Amino acid sequence: MQLKGRAIRITLTPKELKILQELCKEQGQAELYKKLHIEEEKANNSKTVKKTKATKKATKTRQDTAKRKIENSINMMRLLNAKITVYSVAKDAKVSYNTASKYKDYILQNAQ
Known about the structure:
The protein is about 70% helix and about 0% strand. The chain is mostly helical.
């Protein structure tokens, strides 16, 4: 398989990266070792406190939006005397089934 100079992207665990770097040293692949080291540094430097906080804030916002949609859907379904299940709430709230299933206890508790 030839890649013809195209760059590819792979995901490695820190342990896998160390093994690859050791193999490069053993095989005399200094240039490849240097590239791996540079990419490792970039990855380590990209994890800033600001980015971490922004990610947490975005996740919280998405969760709050999903919960609000689910609550509104349950309230409407109760008013209409519709059958309340995780699937029906997910469909009505326009959230994924997996998202709704995270609130399964809440949904089933309010189904009565």
